[in-house]
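Read as chain and fold; for instance:
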Amino acid sequence: KEWKMVNGIRIWCEDARTGKIIHLGGEFLWGDCTVIEARIRTLLETGILPGPNADAAWLAVDAQLVFVSDGADWFVDRILPLVPGAIAFLDLYHLFDWFAVFGKLVFGAGSARGREFNAELRRLLLRKRPKLTNAAPRERKGHKKSRSAHHVHAHEQPWDGRGRPRTVFSDATADALLGLLDALKLTEPEHEEAREKLITKVVKNRARIDYPVALARGFQIGSGAMESMHVSGSQLRLKLPGATWLEESSQAVLNFRMLDMGGRWD
């Protein structure tokens, strides 16, 4: 049976001087990753998002494009190549969830050892670091094939920011997480398998989890603003008991809800 999927896009900006959040809009679209890719292309071409060929208006405000996502392959493969120089982060809470599932399996729900593991995880992810570090990325040495060093693609390179201090992201956070996992003494085969899967996820996203530097620069590292909008923006209306929808009519309802929530209904 064909899966029905709704994806959401929410755009806001933050004034680098005042910290004020300015909401630019959002929408929900029926369709898979190809639909979202096409929409992002349109947003770039029409100048709603600052792209590689940003117009004078975006250049005047020194805009820096930052994405927060769940780390899905299609986002890395389809969206980031459209915006060379954009900065992308793995949503912090998705990473917490990966480790929470692993910790529950290995240590048991609510165990003292599990709480210690989670506390150490938070310390490693949110530790304080110099505001603008210039530390060079470090390669991970002496590990299995699944833990090989991540090769940074062109679209993952740090962005100079047209006059702003250069933001340099390192592998320090990823190395610390991998060290935390390596230090565990596991005896159960299923636990070892779960660790290897988690290690693979961390290595795959190592260029997008340097949260201490992100926080020092004032970047948002969580997708709560988008996740919370799923309920009020789409699910509350479309997931009524017994309701069935056509794609066209449900898309119209989504459009109307966005007009209302964005203050543009009148």
Notes: The longest helix spans residues 92-107.
